[in-house]
Amino acid sequence: MNKTISVVLPNFNGKNLLESFLPFTIMALNQANCAYEIIVVDDVSQDNSILFLEENYPEIIQIKNTQNKGFSFSCNQGILAAKNELVLLLNSDVKLSVDYLEKLIPYFDDVDTFGVMGQILDKSGEKIEVAAKVPRFKCLKLKSDKQVHPKSLFSSKIPTTFLSGANCLIDREKLLDLEGFDEIYSPFYTEDLDLSMRAWKLGWKCYYEHQATCIHLGSHTTKSHFQKTKIKEIYFRNRMLFHAIHLNRKDIRRWQFQLFFLEVIPKLLLGQFWILRSYIGLLDHKRQIQKSRRKIRKLMMRKRGKKSIADVTNEIHFLLENKELNIL
């Protein structure tokens, strides 16, 4: 019997996007020949999104937030409401190919699979925006700016550092074990890296399927409501939060020193004062960081997970060995 799917789709003033792209999501679900439900989590939209869904898609479950608390909070509301085996986390500005889910579902025959995502194309549909992310961990910093995809259609499974929150299919039971996204990263960015890193640390795997494609408008909501400097400030703050949460205790002091003297101070000297707001944001989250670190430790003890960021990096590189890959 085919897997069952719950689509979790956060929405903020995305009526036009829902109108354009929901039909393609439904076609992909029908093509996969699986039972499904669609859950739209609305963040106090003012553009008649709710009315549009009620009139055109009455079968869709709506969760209406009374306050916009960001991407991770909205996704978590949908994840908690989901009833099916797999959860498709989907942005409202993503257009799925008709065989998208059909290509991803077989990955879950492997009990170690946490989730899988397809390739993300830019709005032209011609350029690859996101493929498999390859990690590098150096000087206590994790980067995943290198992207690869298989040369052959018949390549074995390709691991990825993290699953994009815009288009990934995830095992719901494992997702609930991790308690969904860590809302410390609100309003957006890095929450999907954090989620995937927690999954890797517990021994689960995140994959990339090159034959499943989708088109993404690209941070449509974010760019519409935040200035570039604010987006940069949030991005760097959340990268700091990620390392503060995931680095081993013995490395934290050294990382803090490097962060302040090799990143914050140089940028300030160049007049990039937004970095100071990012750093203050890190300091303001001290209590939440400790809470997140404790939560991961407890989960790793319960699941007998022992991996560090460096271990995860080495594992992904090992899984990629001897594969014929194109580098983007």
Automatic annotation (TrEMBL):
<dbReference type="InterPro" id="IPR029044">
    <property type="entry name" value="Nucleotide-diphossugar_trans"/>
</dbReference>
<dbReference type="InterPro" id="IPR001173">
    <property type="entry name" value="Glyco_trans_2-like"/>
</dbReference>
<dbReference type="Pfam" id="PF00535">
    <property type="entry name" value="Glycos_transf_2"/>
</dbReference>
<dbReference type="GO" id="GO:0016740">
    <property type="term" value="F:transferase activity"/>
</dbReference>
<protein>
    <submittedName>
        <fullName>GT2 family glycosyltransferase</fullName>
    </submittedName>
</protein>
<keyword id="KW-0808">Transferase</keyword>
<feature type="domain" description="Glycosyltransferase 2-like">
    <location>
        <begin position="6"/>
        <end position="175"/>
    </location>
</feature>
